[in-house]
Amino acid sequence: MGILPSEVQALPVIIQGGMGVGVSSWQLARAVARRGHLGVVSGTGCETTMVRRLQDGDPGGHLQRAMAEFPIDGVAEAVLRRHYRAGGRAPGEAYQLLPMHRHEMNLARQQVAILAAFVEVSLAKHGHDGLIGINLLTKIQLPTLATLYGAMLAGVDYVLMGAGIPREIPGALDALAEHRACALRLDVEQLPDGVTAQVKFDPAHHWQRNPPVLRRPRFLAIVASNSLAMMLARKASGRVDGFVVEAPVAGGHNAPPRGEPRWNERGEPIYGPRDEVDLAKLRELGLPFWLAGGTGHPDRLTAALAAGAAGIQVGTLFAFCDESGMADELKTSVLARARYGEVTVQTDAHASPTGYPFKVVQWAEDPAAGVARERVCDLGYLRVAYADADGTIGYRCSGEPVETYVAKGGKREDTVGRRCLCNSLMATIGLGQVRSSGALEPPLVTSGDDLMLIADFLRGRTRYSAADVISYLEG
To answer: How far is Cα 2 from Cα 345, in angstroms, rounded to an integer?
Structure first.
């Protein structure tokens, strides 16, 4: 499987967080890696971001440059024929959609996911010898194997996964590195006892010639408890190479509090001592770990190293830098308010269809404030699989139209307060869909609690670069 990156290079001290849909862009990951730290691209929804950027004309030609290097014959050409629009879409034209993932997908749909991950990682790795990782959500199961394979074809160095229990991923990486068939157990609600479902992937189905030699990337599990870290270290399907220990002040999805749920006056979940990770016990596992959530300060890096961590993972500071994929107008608007402490970050217990708490930024100029969006599920990354009485697997999402969700056996109360994160986060990176009414999909900005303290870092600036973040953290 070749030499692993950490066998020839020291462990990274700073890991740039794998944020949202496209916020952790290849431009950001490349900028961080060029400074000697671990740059991370977001693998979530990357095939949708790719085809939408192609429909916008691929400004700069970056995607086409990377696609020309894709080693599986005919795939890039087919995607370009279908999705590339020279000069971009017409004003008011909606984006063409990809078919939503299912547990049994045809080869062409798998190949779009493989290509997209390859492109994102290739662009991030271009022109330097630094480390690049890819971040995926464990709860999004259907495209995972194809996305990992594409990233590995591009030479990805690290894979990071949280938002669930990624127990089967290490073994899948072992198999993919040798181009062997593999599978992940699919979580299916209402499946009869003793019956299981799988998402299967066989690299051999995609090659008409000998595939290239691959190396297995290192795998870092994102955890919020000692018990999960211990279980993964001992019972995962293959080698776990370390942990990112994420506190509940981190942006995006948070692990729910342990024990009986309690709420503060804002309706946010309350975390307590049971949610604190015992670093002494974590050190006993003998694996490197990085601290995440509230770590965007040089003193936190010093404290992490003193506690035995290999370093820190930082999201919020990178999310609002020049190179991040967040739309420039949103970054400018949020930072203008954050300079004066006029932003809040709410841990919304209901926004995400996953049921996990999700951080949402609130500020005066939020373009989504008060907007009643059309309930629609046309991207489907956060759908849940369920079994009908006859055993047929279907899919539902608590963010889809309420009556549709209920007709599929979902509970009406589960739809209250839910948002379509898939579409909202696409809008956050400037790729929002045009709806039938002509309205543009509103964005949703997520961030860690550190955003409310970012004024100390800004020191009057209205914008900054990834290099500025690294220089600040390095002291």
So the answer is: 44
311-314 and 158-162 as β-strands: parallel, antiparallel, unpaired? unpaired
pLDDT at 5 over 50: no
User: Contacts by 189-198 with C-beta closer than 8 Å and gap 24+?
Assistant: 189/384, 189/385, 189/386, 189/387, 190/386, 190/387, 190/388, 190/409, 191/387, 192/387, 192/391, 195/387, 195/391, 197/103, 197/385, 197/387, 197/393, 198/103
Residues in contact with 10: Cβ distance below 8 Å, sequence separation at least 6, in sequence order: none
CATH number at residue 140: 3.20.20
Q: What is the dihedral of CA 449, 452, 458, 463, to 10 degrees?
A: 80
Using pLDDT thresholds of 50, 70 and 90, give the confidence band for residue 250. low
CA separation, residue 439 to residues 321, 335, 370, 372, 427 (Å): 28, 26, 14, 11, 12
> Is 241 inside a domain boundary?
yes
CA distance 327 to 431: 9
For tokens 């008409």, name the residue: 208
221 sits in the region (left: phi over 0; alpha: psi -120 to 50; else beta) called beta
Structural domain boundaries enclosing 123: 11-326+460-474
In a domain, 362, yes or no: no
CB-CB contact of 133 with 159 (8 Å): yes
Helices (H), 194-278: 226-235
Helix (H) or strand (E) segment spanning residue 78: helix 75-83
Q: Is 89 domain-assigned?
A: yes
Give how many domains the chain has, as a whole number: 1
Q: 152: which DSSP letter?
A: H
Under 8 Å between Cβ of 345 and 363 = no
Alpha-helical (H) ranges within 154-215 are: 169-177
Average pLDDT value for residue range 321-327: 97
Reported as a pLDDT band with limits 50, 70 and 90, residue 9 is low
- Flag whether 164 is in a domain: yes
Q: pTM here?
A: 0.94
Could you tell me how many residues make up the chain? 475
